[in-house]
Design a protein that fits this description.
It catalyses: 2-formamido-N(1)-(5-O-phospho-beta-D-ribosyl)acetamidine + ATP = 5-amino-1-(5-phospho-beta-D-ribosyl)imidazole + ADP + phosphate + H(+). This is Phosphoribosylformylglycinamidine cyclo-ligase. Keywords: ATP-binding, Cytoplasm, Ligase, Nucleotide-binding, Purine biosynthesis. There is one protein chain. The protein is α+β, with helices and mostly antiparallel strands and 373 residues long. It folds into two domains: 155 residues, PurM-like, N-terminal domain (60s Ribosomal Protein L30, Chain: A, 2-Layer Sandwich); 192 residues, PurM-like C-terminal domain (Phosphoribosyl-aminoimidazole Synthetase, Chain A, domain 2, Alpha-Beta Complex), CATH 3.90.650. It is built from eleven helices and 15 strands. The strands form five sheets. Strands 3-6-4-5 form a four-stranded mixed sheet, with helices on one face. A four-stranded antiparallel sheet has the order 10-12-7-13. The termini are far apart.
């Protein structure tokens, strides 16, 4: 039996799978993962399944679970190109956990999945450390994950990341289009940059321009790849503080995470059918990275509104008498926020509006005016 086991292990290594490297990667990430664990997490790191004590849900009158799953997309190609992997994890948490808060839910726990061509322990540890830091910032326990080595399918330096999270919300506190009313104000929450969408276009533009990710550029303000890897801003904790503020109780009616599909489409998803809003471009100036990329492409900022967030990472649709207070609270909490439009249900021609998105028959949105300089 001993000889057979050794032979099988040797064959697996010869096939390109290094189980010892996988074990080392787990050891390197253990402390970072453990820091996301509160008393609700049982069993620690390394089990077949993560355990989370949900006894606290007994205090809910009618608890609902919210879940979301996502990845980071082709942004990982830039991390791989410049061998910088410590921010991709935050991008993953932002894409997953910030979808959960959109319905008003508090995140409970998350799991991750990393597929790679070859396990490089320090690289895997960097990725997971980034996930763990962002989980800690959003109050999410990282209860498990998987690192899968796929030699022959992925190159030695290739990897992809994905994750899923679960949260909870009271049934009567769920945010959504049904709460939105005529006269509600749309508050924009600033992004930190490109976040994790539109990188196929970014890579195409740079390739056509002959610019490498490791190049230093005055236009970009540094090493191109490092600028593009600016991690996704995390909105969960500041938004939960606003939602839990007694002075602002019930003020926020719906939230929209500006991800794939761009600005208008994502806002339209959280507005009721028959409503519309014009988002005023003059209320903000898109970040320099968007202007540089648009200039390189020989296009306008307006032409990328369906691909990039252009400086808005989240929208909050708020009762009109609380809009200023919500924007002020979020800004004080580190997320610059401002009003961009007002919801209307009056009858009008909606020909040039974007209506609903991703299977949701929602409201209508269009951007108007010119961007601030």
């Amino acid at each position: 039996m001993t000889e057979q086991r050794a032979s099988a292990t040797s064959s697996y290594a010869e096939a390109g799978v290094d189980t010892a490297a996988g074990d080392l990667a787990v050891e390197l990430m253990k402390s970072a993962v453990s820091r996301t664990h509160g008393p609700e997490v049982l069993g620690g790191v390394g089990g077949f399944a993560g355990l989370f004590d949900v006894s606290a849900l007994k205090e809910f009158a009618h608890p609902l679970l919210a879940t979301s799953t996502d990845g980071v997309g082709t942004k990982v190609a830039i991390a791989q190109a410049i061998d910088k992997h410590d921010t991709i994890g935050q991008d993953l948490v932002g894409m997953v956990v910030d979808d959960i808060v959109v319905v008003g839910a508090k995140p409970l726990f998350m799991t991750d999945y990393i597929a790679c061509g070859k396990v490089v322990p320090s690289r895997i540890a960097d990725i997971v450390a980034g996930i763990a830091r962002a989980c800690a910032e959003t109050g999410t326990a990282l209860v498990g994950g998987e690192t899968a080595e796929h030699p022959g399918l992925l190159g030695p330096d290739d990897y992809d990341v994905a994750g899923a999270a679960v949260g909870a919300v009271e049934a009567d506190a769920v945010l959504g289009a049904d709460r939105v009313r005529d006269g509600d104000v749309v508050v924009a929450l600033a992004s930190s940059g490109l976040h994790s969408n539109g990188f196929s276009l970014v890579r195409h533009i740079l390739s056509k321009s002959g610019i490498g990710f490791a190049d230093r550029s005055d236009e970009f303000g540094g090493v191109v790849g490092e600028v593009l890897l600016e991690p996704t801003r995390l909105y969960t904790s500041p938004l939960l503080r606003v939602l839990g503020d007694p002075a602002l109780a019930g003020a926020v009616h719906s939230l929209s995470h500006v991800t794939g599909g761009g600005i208008a489409a994502n806002l339209a998803r959280v507005l009721p059918r028959g409503s519309w809003v014009e988002v005023d471009r003059s209320t903000w100036s898109p970040l320099p990275v968007f202007r540089v990329l648009s200039d390189l492409a020989g296009s306008t900022l307006e032409s990328s509104e369906g691909t990039w967030n252009l400086g808005i990472g989240m929208f909050a649709v708020v009762a009109p008498d609380a809009a200023d207070a919500v924007a002020t609270a979020l800004t004080a909490d580190g997320i610059p926020s401002w009003t961009v439009g007002t919801i209307s249900t009056s009858v009008r021609d909606l020909d040039r509006f974007e209506q609903g998105a991703k299977g949701v028959d929602g409201g209508a949105v269009r951007l108007v005016g010119s961007y601030a300089v």
